[in-house]
Amino acid sequence: MSRRADPRQRSIVTPEGLTLTFTLAGRGARFGALALDLVFMVLVLVAMLLFLAFLAGGLANLDTQIAKKNAVGQAIQFLVIVMLAFIFLLRNGWFLFFELGPRGATPGKRITGLRIAARDGGRLSTEMVLARNLMRDIEIFLPLAAMGAALGSDASEAFNWVMAGWFLIFALFPFFNRDGLRAGDLVAGTWVVEAPRRKLEASLSTAPAATPAASGYAFRAEDLAAYGEYELQTLERVLREDQDSAMEAVARAICLKIGWTPPGGHEVRSFLEAYYTALRAQLEQGMRFGKRKADKHDAGGTP
Amino acid sequence: MNTLFDSLKSRFSREAETETGDITAAALRSDRFRQAREGDWKRLETMVSAMEKGRLSRLSDADVLELPVLYRTVASSLSVARETSLDAATLAYLEALVQRAYFLVYGPRDSFTGWLRGFFAGGWSRAVRAIGLDILIALAVMVAGATVGWLLVAHDPQWYGALVAGETTRTPTATREALRATLFGDQKQEALGVFATFLFGHNSQIAIMAYAVGFAAGIPSVLLLVQNTGNLGAMLWVFHQKGLLLDFIGWLSIHGTTELFAILLAGASGIHVGRAMAFPGGHSVMASLAAAGRRTAPVMLGVVLMLLVAGMLEGFARQLINETPARLAIGGAMLVFWLNYFFTFRGRRT
Q: Which residue of A has its CA nearest to B15?
């Protein structure tokens, strides 16, 4: 509800004809989500390896035993197979598993408040999630490996640097387009959006003291004509944050504008609630007649 | 008539009161609107939260059936609220709630296991058939690569070192016995399972890469195919030189028909994506690319499964079966199986 359109906002029209506005995830948030996921993956891997090492702990001389065709050798072989399979599943399945779930987000994305969605506003299909995660290898793991190879080699190894540069194009893809799409998003037709979760807050205008009659304040039409929707929302935010100093400052500013004597002490909040309710009533009434008043500079006549 | 008039009158008079700002609690129309519907909103929120946590079992069937209805109710609340309410907190709550419910109502139609069932029962074959042209292109590239590898080494064995890097035993100068020993014998090799698992992981990662780099107009996928089959062609020539061609093919085919088929499909998928990008036709590049990605994703899941089978064959069967005819028979049977599954099996329609 900002006054200027956010460049990261994208709208889709649902089959019911309702326009839903999504905010694209910032690149920083996405990088943070990725970093969190990688940390979680490493933690899971370490836990699994410790567990396997604990299981194998009773079996001495791993390197010589593994080649033996006795029970010990078989047991260790089995553990190694479990480990290899687990690493493969972790590397390729982590993102897949979580993004296929009802939240459409990995743990990292959940923490950073993101989820994936189909770019055309339709259903998010299994194929899309598969496609976007098949690309992940050349976007994360190979660029990292190539950079490692380039940094580890002699300066003369130009080939390694060329490879690293080529893979970096994939890694840095989100910086080359307006929607912040990575190669996987492009191939799958998905994007990453913010997934807001909000609690239903109590209504300010139904507080017992909020109604002008109960509070004893009587505002004239010109008192309420001073402000628009933007100021109403600012006032709502100040009331919800409930900071005494901020509320006093706002009450003083309002009183100065409408020529009242500023209230003090306990009266500040009840004055603001009453003014908020009256102003909202006024502006909502205008809305019903197709007249909106965006802010205090707006004459209020535009539909 | 009179009662109707009275009720209308009372409505309008109450309206007039609102406008003078002179009534009691929930004076605002938008607040009364909210109070009347809050129950539905809260109920939808509870359901959405439970479903997001994957706790479908906690919801009754009636609730699950009611989700779309409730979603539409709340969506209509939102569109009314947008036009009549200036309560920013309530609007933000409704926007977020409708978005969450939207993702559930229009989420994946099937569970992943349900999708997998469809995948095996025809989805996989359909996906492979959908990229038939690219499979032909990739096959041509692979045959050309192998031929070029063979011809280069036949022309000048010096090429072998360039084509097959780091190979020390299977070289043009190796004796027949040394070459034969690489094909047979290793029955006592240990840790076959570990070997098979390693092969599977390694090959899958390469196949996924061959697909993913197709994103760059398909050229890297083609190059990877050429490189791998060039290497294969050179080896074929080396064994041919010493009269071991059929044995080598047997050694290769037991898992190779599956593995090379998987590589073919991965390369074809990469080429398909690259082609969609370079020649989007009547669509935008973005739309064309996204459609190609969705078409090839199931093929690639299949490729990983095929490589799992190939890894098992390579790790176990090849080490345990030491005769060329048996190896050829298994390899041939696998090839017939895959061809049948992909091109004649129609499966059930979804």
A: A285
User: Are B235 and B101 part of one and the same domain?
Assistant: no
The answer, yes or no, to whether residue A214 has pLDDT greater than 60, is yes
Of B24, B93, B209, Cβ closest to residue A137: B209
Residue A102's domain comprises: 9-135+182-194
User: CA dist B316 to A230, B307, B320, Å?
Assistant: 72, 14, 6
Q: Considering the domain boundaries, does residue B348 fall inside one?
A: no
Residue A197: its pLDDT value, please? Answer: 85
**Token digits for B76?**
């209509």
Q: Are residues A19 and A72 in the same domain?
A: yes
- Which of the four pLDDT bands, split at 50, 70 and 90, describes residue A1? very low
- Judge if A120 and A40 occupy the same domain: yes
B20: amino acid identity, one letter: T
**A232 and A212 inside one domain:** yes
> What is the pLDDT at residue A110?
92
A155 within some domain: no
Asked if B83 has any chain A CB less than 8 Å from its own CB, the reply is yes
Q: Which residues of chain B does A170 touch, with a Cβ-Cβ cutoff of 8 Å?
A: 215
Confidence of residue B318 (pLDDT cuts 50, 70, 90): confident
Number of domains in chain B: 2
Domain co-membership, A119 together with A221:
no
With 0-12 / 13-18 / 19 or more C-beta atoms within 10 angstroms meaning exposed / middle / buried, residue A60 is exposed
Residue with tokens 């100068």: B173
Cα R_g (chain A), whole angstroms: 30
- What CA–CA distance (Å, rounded) separates A19 from A198? 19
Both tokens of residue A174?
Answer: 């989100």
Q: Does B65 touch chain A (CB under 8 A)?
A: no
CB-based contacts of B195: which residues, under 8 Å, 6+ apart?
B189, B314, B315, B319
Average confidence score pLDDT of chain A: 82
> Does residue B201 share a domain with residue B82?
no
Burial annotation B11-42 (CB, 10 A radius, 16+ → b, else e): eeeeeeebeebeeeebbbbbbebbeebeeebe
Rounded CA gap, B93 and B109, in Å?
Answer: 26
* B80 & B177 share domain: no
- Residue B61 belongs to some domain of the structure: yes
Where does a domain end: B56, B72, B105? Answer: B105
Same domain, residue pair B282 and B155? yes
Nearest CA in chain B to A234: B88
Prediction ipTM score: 0.82
**Predicted confidence (pLDDT) at residue A180 exceeds the cutoff of 80:** yes
Which residues in B lie closer than 8 A to residue A278 (C-beta atoms)?
21
Q: Which of A145-149, A281-285, B270-274 has the lowest mean pLDDT?
A: A145-149
Are residues A238 and A116 both part of a single domain?
no
User: Can you tell me the mean pLDDT for B44-69?
Assistant: 81
pLDDT of B17 over the 80 cut: no
Higher pLDDT, A249 or A294: A249
Q: Is residue B30 part of a domain?
A: yes
Question: In total, how many domains does chain A have?
Answer: 2
d(CA A12, CA A19): 6
